[in-house]
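Task card 7
Instruction: Convert sequence to structure tokens.
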Amino acid sequence: MNCIIVDDEPLAREAMKLLIEESDNLQLIGSFNSAATASDFMEQQGVDLVFLDIQMPGITGIEFARTISKKTLVIFTTAYTEYALDSYEVDAIDYLIKPVEAERFQKAVDKALSYHSLLLKEEKEAIEQRQEAIRELSSELEFRQQFRLLGLLYKGKPSDTSEIKEWVNSPSDYRKHAFLRILPTAVGIINLLCIGATILGFLPASISGIVFACFVVFSFIFSKGITKIQATYGEKLQILSTYADQILITEKKEMHSPALQQLKAELTSQNQTASQSVHRLAKLMNALDQRGNLLMSTILNGLLFWELRQVMQIEKWKEAHSADLPRWIEAIGAIDAYCSLATFSYNHPDYIYPQITSQSFHLQAEALGHPLMNRNKCVRNGIDMEKRPFFIIITGANMAGKSTYLRTVGVNYLLACIGAPVWAAKM
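Output:
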């Protein structure tokens, strides 16, 4: 497991370096006197473990730890005991008090090694699950084509997803007022009483007509705001309708791999499927569109404040599904990505799925080829990197293919990490 030291005290860095050199399981790849320089290094180099001081000028160790990836483990090294509680808030593996004793140091390292093994196992299993999902969908040509065609029906914008999330988290304009929530019911009851009293002869019909006319006029107060909301919600519904069709065929499709089953399970809410929920929204929006019929809207608004009632029903739907919509969209996005990778696999039946190792790092491949090159002209090469950091010197004449070789390794390594097949005899 590789590691770095981040400490502003030269003597402390040297003492930690001696302890690391005595450990068979650690490889020191950097020593830094500030969080800023360590951060620059970590942007270019993967780091498994950081021995991090807390009291440093500029960015403190606690502040720096909050910016570090969860895949990189942190052991704090400090002369102060009062920061122990803060260290657990940033999920530090351990907390060493200077001067660090060898036995205590080794105990912290053993803990880090155990946790690192769990992370590697989880990452290995995640890649293997993605491979299984891609294998499954690569044979489902009809499903992939239908999923893609439904997505092409709406030529969306890159900002669609963020707009949906922003919309669903925006506050309701009408339901937030208790008076407005009871107003449609109150209007309906008053009209019912007036009509009943008129039929029974207790109230002149003219009075009931005046009450009805007043409610019609009163309802016009909300018309401008409702028109604006209708336009906004209508645009979002157009986006959601596309997702709804893709969600529906996904719900109907039997999934076998754990990754796809989990994504399919994300498309449920409150004992109702995502497609049913979106269909419910579509019905509410279509009903609101009836306000374009002037005669119908006048009668319904006078009797029930119908437009206001419909808008609040839509706002109620939005509030009920504010946490679900982003999850549904992410699930459909993930299935879309799996379909794309499955199509890549389908188009390259001679590619192989690499074997994922449980080691921290070991890249070994035979006869690697660049996926974008003509397979009849491509010169395929192997690679063997046993650990990191590891250096391979690539030499050759100008235009001999050195950069193409590096791209070949990089592209296939990336494909392997996301679970896709690679162009190689063995990997």
